[in-house]
Every structure is written in C-alpha cells, then in structure tokens.
Amino acid sequence: MAKKKRYLTATMSDGYVKTIGPTAAPFTHYWRIVAEIEGRRPEVFWGHARSLKEASGKTTAAREAATQRGWKSYAFEIVALTETQA
Questions:
Q1: In this structure, are residues 32 and 21 in contact, taking their beta carbons and an 8 Å threshold?
Q2: What is the dihedral of CA 27, 73, 38, 61, to 10 degrees?
C-alpha cells in the first residue's frame, strides 16, 4: 500500500514560508543558510531533514563552507515542519 502524500510547511523567523510536497518522506525539520558574500547578493542554501539531530548536523558544514568560500557572515536557522493542506 502506498504511503499517504502530504504537504509540509516551514515558516522562518523573517516570515519566509517554504512548502514541500506532495511527499511521503518522513521529514520533520527545514534548515536554511543565508550567506553574506563580499560585494554580492546573499546566497541561500536550504534543505529538509528527518530529525532535529540531522538538521543540526548542518551547523558544522555551514562553518566549513564559510571558511572555504570566504563568506563575510552567515545565518543558520532550523524550524520544525508542519503538515498542511494542499
């Protein structure tokens, strides 16, 4: 039997809303990195994870990316996904 498809929504602290779906994957959290780059527009990297622990693991990757890519600064944020109607 096929898993039920659902829509998942993340609302970030700055009011940005991201909807994922339809999906049957067991995602629970959404993460986003907004990187400030000298003399350029900010770059945004995002993804979803199956647990808070998995999403929190991106903190180390963000720190390493900032060093490798020469980001002036960056903001890393994680929010819980909520199931919403289509």
A1: no
A2: -50
- For 73, the token pair is 């600064």
Q: What angle do CA 62, 8, 79 make, to 5 degrees?
A: 35
71-83 pLDDT, tens digit per residue, is 999 999 999 999 9
Q: Which of 48, 64, 69 lies closest to 6, judged by CA?
A: 48
pTM recorded for the entire structure: 0.86
pLDDT tens-digit map of 53-69: 999 999 999 999 999 99
Contact by Cβ (8 Å): 72, 64: no
